Structures are given as structure tokens and as C-alpha cells.
């Protein structure tokens, strides 16, 4: 037990029971190691919590993991902090090392969902080498494929009421009166990242960077194309079909 361990006496019996039930439910689940690939707005953020819950996987967001390693001052975290302080990018080996540490945790026993990594073929190869040493491999890469024009409509139509966080969409969930919040009547704003120009450059960078990674996994026969333009519930059904095959 590490210094951050909690005494069982301090945990409510309801929490202990629900954790036991979760472990019991998860014990029969097959192991799955997944990568989610898709442009901003393709629905990865909607589907990953559902996949995590249904298949008892841990969700590894590399940015969050790096910040956590830095905060916890793990040996890798200290190295990462040194790089960041110098304004350098954290090396691929460091990120793969942090993933390596994370997947040994009990919560990752049944496998994991990797999101936002690997972004390059070099990273994909390093990840594969690390998994091979553990006797495992990536089972499926879910490609949230969607036309840029559909993404543009999805993203550039988003408007936010800043003080409450309420969000609207000009086409899919419009406010009662154009441009103002339903509750307060205050003006709505658009996030800087949600404009057509920003989206266009983000998508260009995404395609250029990610296509080689998609090709790399396609050659290994582990890519599954999802129709990410469909409504979320239909995408969830597709994901289940892909993961049960």
C-alpha cells in the first residue's frame, strides 16, 4: 500500500459494495486495448466514456497523464517537467513510459482506451514495441471517419452562453431567439476554436499527421471505420458491433 492508500475503514460500505460489484461484472469481460482516432468534433469524447463503462477499460488521455505524472513527481514526471520547463516537447519515449506505468494499474486490468496518442507512426511503433514486451498488442483502432463539411456544420454552429455554460447549435439545438440565451436573454458567444478558419487549419493538420498512422494500423488489419456522422446512439451500436467481433 502506497502512502496515498486509503484505509478501508474510511470507505463507506456502499462504495466497497459497488466496487466489488463492478469487479465482479468486469471479471467476465474480454480484454481490449483500443485506440480512438478522429478529428475534433467527430464524437470520440461522447463514445469513450460509454466504451470505458461497458468494457471495464481505463481511459488514458496522454495530456492528463503527463500532468498527473508531473504533479506526482514520478521519475518520468520529473523528466517531463524538465523538458516542459525548457520549452521542449516531451519525448515519445517518455510518453510511452508513462503509458507503460499507467496500464499496470488495477483499473487497466481489462485493457485501455488511448485517445490523442499515437499521433505519428514513430509513436505507434514505440507503443507497439512496449506492448510487445508485455506480451500484448493493440486489438482495435476505431477510426471516427467523418466528412470535413459535416464537421464544419457541427462545430461552426455551436454557440455558448458563457456564464452558465449552456450550449446551443444553430441547426440542431437553436435558441428560441437567435443569438441570445433562452433563460437570461444575454448574448451568446462562439468559442475562438469554433470558427471555420480555425477548424480548417486544425483539420488540415489532423489529416496530414494522422493519415499515416491510420495507414500503419490498416496494414496490421486492426482498423475499424465508424460512420461518425450518424447520431451518437447509432455510433454506439456500431462500436458495440465492432468490439464484439
Automatic annotation (TrEMBL):
GO terms for molecular function: AMP kinase activity; ATP binding. Residues 158-193 form the Adenylate kinase active site lid domain. It catalyses: AMP + ATP = 2 ADP. InterPro entries: Adenyl_kin_sub, Adenylat/UMP-CMP_kin, Adenylat_kinase_CS, Adenylate_kinase_lid-dom, P-loop_NTPase. Keywords: Kinase, Nucleotide-binding, Transferase. It comes from the Eukaryota. Its EC number is 2.7.4.3. NCBIfam families: adk (TIGR01351), PRK00279.1-2 (NF001380), PRK00279.1-3 (NF001381). Belongs to the adenylate kinase family. HAMAP family: Adenylate_kinase_Adk. Catalyzes the reversible transfer of the terminal phosphate group between ATP and AMP. Plays an important role in cellular energy homeostasis and in adenine nucleotide metabolism. This is adenylate kinase. It comes from Ziziphus jujuba.
